[in-house]
Structure formats: structure tokens, C-alpha cells
Amino acid sequence: MKSHVALMAALSVALVGPAAAQTKDANAEFEKFRAEMEESSPAELFEARGEELWKAKRGPNKVSLAESCDLGQGLGNVEGAYVRTPRYFADADAVMDIERRLVWCMVEKQGFKFEDIAKKPFQGANDNNAPDITNLVTYVASGSRNMKFDMPLHDAKVRDAFETGKAMAAYRAGPYDFSCNTCHGTDGKRIRMQNLPNLATSEGAIRGVQGWPGYRMTGGVMLTSQWRMNDCFRQQRFPEPKYASQAVTNLIAYMTGNANGQLYKGPGIKR
After folding, report:
1. 206 vs 106, 219, 255, 258, 264, CA distance in Å?
2. Does residue 70 come out as left (phi exceeding 0), alpha (psi in the -120 to 50 range) or beta?
């Protein structure tokens, strides 16, 4: 596995010349480095831990998710579940993304308390271990590797979540009058060296959802789409949403719906 130092060296070489050339060269170097890293992706370690958790009898009820949790593909089946969510789950009477559904199963089936899961749902920069929920999401996501996104937009409840997410993405507020679309609503925008995908397009949406859950090399942590949404709220200077909230599911539904038909490569590498 290549070290983070190699990435920094590669990017420093690229930072010469006019601004446009700098960005192009740096992006090319990073993509080369990403390809090398994904040959032995750290995500595999989190997938393996997630599989153990999926099969283990845990919680006050001493049952496994493998025998009690339906992710939309039948009891205990993870194959294709990630690329077919968010979706409507009748037993919860809610449209859920995969992380929210797993939390629901941990609470309703295994007997864990939501408050305990929500105390620390994401891995921090100084943590050696990812939270159980992150490992579980990574394992489930691996079951959709090399499948196409197929969120069921024909379902009226899913379509409503998609449209609500679309409206949320356009909503401007906060001290800087930002919206999601301020950064991700048109083509050709970037922040420093980071190109910003236009999430309203199929090409931009797949860039937005691809690689999550992702191993973030700048922090050495494994993170999920739920974390990405929360961090975007933070950068907009909005109040952070409640963990596993419907609002975050709606935004994920908007992005994933726009990525329908595009190939998902599985848990990946992020900057």
C-alpha cells in the first residue's frame, strides 16, 4: 500500500504553472495515486469487520442482522441492497438510505438504543477503530460492487423523497446564504484543487455518490454518505442534522436517483 507521503509528493510536483494547468495536473496525479491505492484498498478491512458484525448475535436481543434484517432484497440478503436504496420500507413506514435502515434494524431487531448509536456514529481523525455502523454500511455496500444504481423512483414515496431532496439542495440559508447548489448546482466549479460535481446531472451525481463509503486518506478514516452530508451542512454553516434523519435520506435520494443506471464500483478511496 502506498503511503500518504507519496500523495503529498505527487501533488506538490503538480502545483506549478498557470492555475488551470495546476488543477489538471494535480487531478491527474491524484487519480493515478487513487488507482494504485484501490488495488489494495483499506476498505477491505472494514468490509471484513462489517461481515463479522452482520453475522454475529448481538444486542440485548442476541440476534444477528443476517437472521433479522431485511434491506429490501429479502431477509439477510445484502446483494444489490446498496444500489437499490434509498427505498420505502413498509415495516418502518419510511424511505430509508442503507445506513438509516441498518440503524433501524439494530434498534428494532437487536435491541440497541438509538441514542447510544448516535453518540458517535462517525470515525474521528484520532480514532483507531470505525464505529460498528460504519463497518456494517461498508460490508453491505460491498455486496453491490459492480452493479448499477437502481433506486426505485417509480415508487411514489421514493419519488417524494427525491423531490424533497431536490428542493432542499436548492434552498439557500445560513450566514453565507449558501445552498447545496451553490457548490454543486452547475458545471465547472471547484474549491482550491477540488473539482465540484454538478449533482443535477447523471455524470455529476455518480461522481458524488461513487466511492462511498470511502477511506479518506487525509484523515486515515472510513466514512459514509451520512457523514458526507453532515459535513456539507457544517461547511454551509447550517445546524448539523440529527443522525440518520429523514432530511439526510432525502438528499441522498436526490443524488442517487440522478445516478440511476450508472455503475457502482464499491467502497473506495477519498481524499
Report:
1. 29, 23, 8, 8, 8
2. beta
Domain boundaries, the chain: 4-38, 43-270
Q: Does the structure show a pLDDT above 50 at 266?
A: yes
Q: Which of 69, 105, 180, 232 is catalytic?
A: 232
What pLDDT score does 137 carry?
98
How far apart are the C-alpha atoms of 186 and 198, rounded to whole Å?
5
CATH superfamily of 43-270: Cytochrome c-like domain (1.10.760.10)
pTM over 0.90: no
- Residue 180 annotated as catalytic: no
